[in-house]
Amino acid sequence: MTQTVDRGTRVADLAAAADRIRHHILDMGEVQGQGYVGQGLGFADVLAVIYKDLANLRPQDPEWFDRDRVLLSMGHYAIAEYAALAEAGTLSVDELETYGSDDSRLPMSGMSTYTPGMEISGGSLGHGLGVAVGMALGLRFQGNPARVINMMSDGELDEGSTWEAAMAAAHHGLGNLLCVVDVNQLQADGPTAGVLRTEPLIDKWQAFGWRTVRVDGNDIDALVTAFESVPPGDTPAVVLCDTRIGRGVPFLETREKAHFIRIDEHEWDLARQALRAANPAGSN
Amino acid sequence: MTNTVTPSRAKTSAMIASIAEPGQKTASAPFGHALVALAEQDPTVVGLSADLAKYTDMHIFRDRFPERFFQVGMAEQVLLGAAAGMAETGLVPFVSTYSVFAARRAYDFLCLDIAEPNLNVNVVGGLPGLTTGYGPSHQATEDMAIFRGMPNLTIVDPCDSVDIEQAVPQLAAAAGPTYLRLLRGHVPTVLDEYDYTFELGKASVLRGGHDVVLISSGLMTMRALQAATALAAHKVDVAVVHTPTIKPFDAETVLAELNTDRLAVTLENHTIRGGLFETVASAAVLAGVAKRVIPVALPDAFLDAGALPTLHRRYGLDVDSIVATVLDGLA
């Protein structure tokens, strides 16, 4: 935590971290020529705030028992998670080059048995919140103050298991559980509004007994404020983060088929240039 | 119409019919009491249920250790997901629901959240096979077939209260996930009459016999033993091999008994597809054992609703049917 650092510096540091995460994502995406790059770019700011500001972790010791648990329920976002773990220092930046390759610890979809710092195996959606409920119950039962932070996508709100878990979390008063939803309004078959309407999200979560806050997920300053507004308490909390797929690379933000972006070979450098132009203070 | 006396019809009665026969020695809620005994020794043992604690004997544990029991409501996906999360924090969860719900509703959660990371979560499934007359919604006739395909999962099909009492601590001691086919309520006590102790992963020859070898699991071992006694009156000498662990399977013990000149019969409270019979058959083929084996098993069909004794008779799981199957096989 960086409470002693002044707010402006804190936000600027997090923005720089998000920028590095985006560059890592592009570098990994280029290795495979495709992937959930758009979602990763959109979620990078949230990841930076969680891994660099919010969660109590020992990056070099990912099995530290008293750590906050950060779960990647949407295993498809593994590319972004690896970037965040590299930024946090759990993975080396060099290892990111192995992304999706044979015998790599960094498979295309997130798996706990492969990757240090990956708490659960995802890919099949709607699993994270249920496991998070069990972790929160287990930690509280053992008197451990660690927090469980479940990251999930708005597509997972289609899954009934998510709402089973949401009910259980509220019933058991799991104030040590925080759910972070990436609301990018896009899923495999198209815009969420057309596939299966999930709004009004605030009303739904509140009706299930959760503390709620909705925030621009690409506004670092607002994210910091949002997370501060839902500290551990008597009930579970959810932060709904409205993000923009491809954020930081304008020609990807506007790409129509954004769910599983195909990026031409020559576009990776263009994407990196666009990122640098958007954030000239960035470190890469 | 003339008034005639209507013959009394067997009723379906409760959803949870007892498999104990009148006058049979039984133990009450052996799973619940075994879990309590284990939890007295091991503070990491916790229990979860999905609105079926009372019907899976988990209530014994719930009432003794209320702070270690977690109710998640009628929601099997979070039941197994939460058990995975608790195991990740170092606890040893026992999870109870009906077998149909564990196998059908929550398969993905048992598979991905528990079996893939090989967590010590112990799933206890009530009403396995044909142990209720309630119909296909509650009859888990294919649970072993479903679960045998899941890597890392140990599958135990106990015969009686002795098996259950001895299995519970061994399931907790095993590192990975387990599935126990629960017999609940007043559960017959049978194996105490034999020189037998439950050993996870091991089959056991309960009695020897020169003419026939019965290979059985679950409550069908009880029927196999009864059939062996009945067949003695026909001058047929019957061996019984009990195989409570279906996976990993003790092929060595079973094939040593199977690979003889005796008539071989498998008996299981499960569909003929993917259960004990096919487990034995595949083990035999792998070992190069060519041997005819007669299966006693449920048909590959959705079963009728009705009274449990009627259904066991209808589908050939009762002792008389087993005796007839064996005598036919010898003819």
Provide structural commentary.
The complex is a heterodimer of chains A (about 280) and B (about 325). Chain A has about 280 residues and is an alpha/beta fold. Chain A has a single domain, classed as Rossmann fold (3-Layer(aba) Sandwich). Chain A is about 40% helix and about 15% strand. Chain A is built from ten helices and nine strands. Chain A has helices at about 5-30, 35-55, 80-90, 130-140, 160-170, 190-195, 200-205, 220-230, 250-255, 265-280, and strands at about 35, 70, 150-155, 175-185, 185, 190, 210-215, 235-240, 260. In chain A, the strands form three sheets. In chain A, strands 2-3-4-8-7 form a five-stranded parallel beta sheet, sandwiched between helices. In chain A, helix 8 (about 220-230) links the parallel strand 7 (about 210-215) and strand 8. Chain A is globular, with a radius of gyration of 18 Å. Chain A starts with 6 loop residues before the first helix and ends in a 6-residue tail after the last helix. The model of chain A has no long low-confidence stretch (mean pLDDT about 95). With about 325 residues, chain B is of the alpha/beta class. Chain B has two domains: about 1-190, Thiamin diphosphate (ThDP)-binding fold, Pyr/PP domains (Rossmann fold), CATH 3.40.50; about 200-330, Rossmann fold, CATH 3.40.50. In chain B, about 35% of the residues lie in helices and about 20% in strands. Chain B has helices at about 30-40, 60-65, 75-90, 100-105, 105-115, 145-150, 160-175, 220-230, 250-260, 275-285, 310-315, 320-330, and strands spanning about 25-30, 45-50, 70, 90-100, 120-125, 155, 180, 185-190, 205, 210-215, 240, 245, 265-270, 295-300. In chain B, the strands form three sheets. In chain B, strands 3-2-4-5-7-6-12 form a seven-stranded mixed beta sheet, with helices on both faces. In chain B, strands 9-11-10-13-14 form a five-stranded mixed beta sheet, with helices on both faces. In chain B, strand 13 (about 265-270), helix 10 (about 275-285) and strand 14 (about 295-300) form a beta-alpha-beta unit. Chain B is globular and about 60 Å long. At the A-B interface, helix 4 and helix 5 of A face helix 3 and helix 5 of B.
